Amino acid sequence: QVHLAESGGGLVQAGGSLRLSCAASGSIFRIDNMAWYRQQIGKQREFVASTSSINTTAYADSVKGRFTISRDNAKNTVHLQMNGLEPEDTAVYYCNVAGLRTVQRRYFEEWGQGTLVTVSS
Question: How many Å separate Cα 110 from the centre of its chain?
Answer without folding.
Answer: 12
